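We modelled each protein-ligand pair independently. The example shown here corresponds to the 2-oxo-2H-pyran-4,6-dicarboxylic acid entry; the chain sequence is given first, followed by the ligand as SMILES.
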Amino acid sequence: MEFQKTPGWLDWYDGPSKPRFKVPAGSVDAHCHVFGPGAEFPYVPERKYTPCDASKQQLYALRDHLGFARNVVVQATCHGADNRAMVDALVHSNGKARGVATVKRSVGDAELQAMHDAGVRGVRFNFVKRLVDFTPKDELIEIANRINKLGWHVVIYFEAVDLPELWDFFTSLPTTVVVDHMGRPDVTKPVDGPEFELFVKFMREHKNVWSKVSCPERLSVAGPRALNGEQNAYRDVVPFAKRIVETFPDRVLWGTDWPHPNLKDHMPDDGLLVDFIPHIAVTPELQRKLLVDNPMRLYWPEES
Ligand SMILES: O=C(O)c1cc(C(=O)O)oc(=O)c1
């Protein structure tokens, strides 16, 4: 099938620089995606955008180039609950990738088990309205209870303003809960203001809640962008991510977010994005926890 990209779509950055920051041995890129390729794994009719293709081979070439050892491939919304492209990436990774799926209530036990065997360890619940249609909470709870039996966790994606109304639901989830991109704070607001304090309280009071301190390129308002050799990119995001890394060093994850779905204003150089890490995890110990120990404990517990 031939797909036309959404008008204005930005393709991922070709030929990223070599990071100056050398990630520790065994580092995990714990948030990234594959798109299609559409000719092999068609994008679903209910998608909100049509991306460029971003294949497993391209993802794994990036992994090697950046110095990472493993990936966690998160189902992108353009594939809906059709997990074939993500699962295909896992089974062709030589055990170096695990995954997070999107499932519906109708998913069968055998299908869940097959995904588990392929390396899936979580499901993603998305509350960002521009990306997905609404799913009733009772359906999500039912899914959470089922996947909990497999030892999986729930990944949640939402925007900071929506945390108050989602609080009761999130805190009732029976699994480990991983928040994408720190719950998308508005970084023009103070890092110690009420909005981000609520997120910190969410993590402080609920020890099952983890956070990805990823996506400065999405959250930043003032930049500068990770382009043209910039070694100090997205400075306005640093206080937020650094605070989460230092307050909850054992419950944070980092990922490139490659191929950066829906970024509208620029595409970062992924090498420079890796150079962001030492600004938010400033000691070798924090870096090792963020990039190796924590993702290994969550995704490869049998090896950690
Ligand atoms: O699955 C996606 O479509 C998706 C989109 C976005 C975003 O548009 O913010 O971010 C993500 O991490 C993943």
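The radius of gyration is 18 Å.
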